[in-house]
Amino acid sequence: MAIEFNSSKTENTLNPESMKNKREAALKRAAILRETIQDYLAAREKIPSGFDLANQYEQAREAILKAFEATEENWNDWHWQLRHRITEVDTLARFVSLSDQDREEIAAVSGHLRWAISPYYLALVMCDEPHGPLWRQSIPSVQEITDTNGSDDPMAESWTSPAPAITRRYPDRLIINVTNQCAMFCRHCQRRRNIGRVDCHKPRHTLEKALNYVRKNREIRDVLITGGDALLLDDLVLDWLLGELQAIPHVEIKRIGTRVPVTLPQRITPSLCALLEKYPPIYINTQFNHPLEVTPESKRACDMLVRAGVVLGNQAVLLRGVNNNPHVMKKLNHELLKVRVRPYYIFHAKNVRGTTHFITSVDDGLAIMENLRGYTSGLAVPTYIINAPYGHGKTPIAPNYLLAKRGNQLLLRTWENKIIPYEIPS
Ligand SMILES: *Cc1c(COP(=O)(O)O)cnc(C)c1O
After folding, report:
1. 250-292: per-residue pLDDT in tens?
2. Under 8 Å CB-to-CB from 308, ≥6 apart: which residues?
3. Is the Cβ–Cβ distance between 167 and 368 less than 8 Å?
4. pLDDT in tens, 2-47
5. What number of helices (H) and strands (E) belong to the chain?
6. How far apart are CA 225 and CA 231, in angstroms?
7. Are residues 207 and 284 in the same domain?
């Protein structure tokens, strides 16, 4: 029997000499591992997060409050924030320094497409550099009207609507589009064709028709309420809509698409959370695109949502001059995990007319993914998606880790770029 014991194992664990060798090998390996992220550790110091702003943000906020003769209480009131969205170039010029050319270009775009920035987001823009990542997302650029590429509806959403307000492109889930209103009209908006001239919530009878479609189609187990920004509906309407969905037996989960944790965190109120808490399970996907957007105020909003039992995810859009950099994207995902938002998707920017100056190369996206996997927590690694044209759906794009496959013989490429044969026992 004694012979059956694994003698080499016994020796390895008991022999002090080999213990020492193992420890030395592990220390060496740790030094190599540390080396693989030195570039990131150096770079991240220079990438500001919303948590680093402190004084700068306070000053910006006070300047805006003073200009609007408003109070702290106003600032924390989402209705006040919405009513005071900045929509005119003269107002904007009071807060950010605009060149004459900036002014002319913004005015030129204004004639074509609405723009609006919540006072909260403007305070963040004031902390950013001119034409920096937050500026680019919120302040119009002349390329929006000089763009000759792209189409208004590359996703053919208008072709995939089997009932009013519904987009259905997948077998078991669909979108209900409830409003065109947003706290801020992002300059990279993929649904800019819906922005129109006025804010417009879908009327109750349209939502009734959408609900009826869900009721009649029993394979729909996942309903995504989006817009515009779904959380710009009033609490009463949300309460009714979520209640109706909750009452449909085959609807297993409800999802909400909203950017308010980023652009209007004041919208996350105790009463909103109390109503969300009544209808579990609810998943909210939001859109943080840059670490500067992860602020103490957005953290507060996320904390409240998590306490209400909501599961939070992030759908970043890969945007030129905003986040098309592996270090920025890694830092963004780290900041998000700190506020309990799980990175879910990185979308390649779509070919939407007026936004094509934001489009990056697919190599930018692949480099970002390559620099996440293995180098950081798997939790910080979203799926990179290109939307196939004409509504053919979300298509995952990933660096290649399976170099070859012949029957059970695989050739793997590890995160460190080591090429290793692997055989699956048959
Ligand atoms: C993105 C999308 C969904 C949700 O897709 P998931 O991959 O499940 O997050 C559902 N319906 C439509 C029409 C969509 O565009």
Report:
1. 999 999 999 999 999 999 999 999 999 999 999 999 999 999 9
2. 273, 274, 276, 277
3. no
4. 334 343 444 445 677 788 899 999 999 999 999 999 999 999 999 9
5. 18, 12
6. 9
7. yes
Domain boundary among 145, 176, 201: 145
Mean pLDDT to the nearest integer, 337-355: 96
Q: Which residues contact 330 (CB under 8 A, 6 or more apart)?
A: 40, 44, 368, 371, 372, 375, 376, 380
345 CA closest ligand 1 atom index = 9
326 plus 413 within the same structural domain:
no
Q: Could you tell me the pTM of the whole model?
A: 0.94
> In this structure, is residue 47 part of a structural domain?
no
Ligand 1 pocket test: which of 159, 169, 170 has the largest number of ligand atoms within 8 Å of its C-beta? 170
Tell me, using a 6 A CB cutoff, whether residue 187 lines ligand 1.
no
Q: Give residue 13's domain range.
A: 7-36+402-423
| Amino acid letter, 96 | V
Question: What pLDDT was estimated at residue 5?
Answer: 38
pLDDT at position 190:
86
Q: Is 170 in the pocket of ligand 1 (CB under 6 A)?
A: yes
Provide the CA 303 distance to its chain's centre, in angstroms.
17
| Count of domains for the chain | 3
295 located within any domain = yes
Q: What is the best residue among 174, 177, 394 to mutate for testing ligand 1's pocket, by most ligand atoms within 8 Å of CB?
A: 394
Rounded to an integer, what is the distance from CA 20 to the centroid of its chain? 47
Q: Ligand 1 atom 11: the closest Cα is on which residue?
A: 174
Distance CA 167, CA 175 (A): 5
Instruction: Check whether residue 305 and residue 357 sit in a common domain.
Output: yes
Regarding whether 374 and 265 lie in a shared domain, the answer is yes
How many angstroms separate the Cα of 292 from the Cα of each of 53, 93, 105, 187, 333?
8, 22, 25, 17, 12
